[in-house]
Amino acid sequence: MNQTKSLLHPLASFEQLVREIITINKALKVACEMGNSDSQIAISMKNIKTRWQVRLLRLYAPERVYLQLDAEAKSDEALYGLFLREPIEGFADINHLPVRVARSMLSAEEIIKFSKCRV
Question: At 104, is the secondary structure helix, strand, or coil?
């Protein structure tokens, strides 16, 4: 059973998970720039990125990563930024997560816990 569980739910290291989120976000941006923002592949990449961001928060927030509203982001909707306490490969943030999506994927208690900027 443990072997099956580990195959179905592999746990990447913190650094690996951060790299994967950054990589899929870059691929998503390329798809959107090519006019494919509504394609099935773009939608799938958005969903994967969101699930990985939620996993990152649940495993490592607020000690290594935290949520913060990003008032400077140019968007039609409110966005959280996921910020690293220590940069990895020059990255200090792990992209945006729409507030409406965060509210649908995370409990109110989790959002409060993950939004604490000080440990």
Answer: helix
Amino acid at residue number 90: G
The per-residue DSSP string of 4-42 comes to HHHHHS----HHHHHHHHHHHHHHHHHHHHTT-TTSHHH
Token pair 């195959």 in the structure block, residue: 7
Task: Provide the whole-model pTM.
Answer: 0.85
Backbone dihedral region for residue 35 (phi beyond 0: left; psi -120 to 50: alpha; all else: beta): left
Pairing of strands 65-69, 91-98: unpaired
Residue-by-residue pLDDT tens, the chain, 119 positions? 444 444 445 567 999 999 999 999 999 999 888 887 888 889 999 999 999 999 999 999 999 999 999 988 888 999 999 999 999 999 999 999 999 999 999 999 999 999 976 55
d(Cα 80, Cα 78) in Å, to the nearest integer? 7
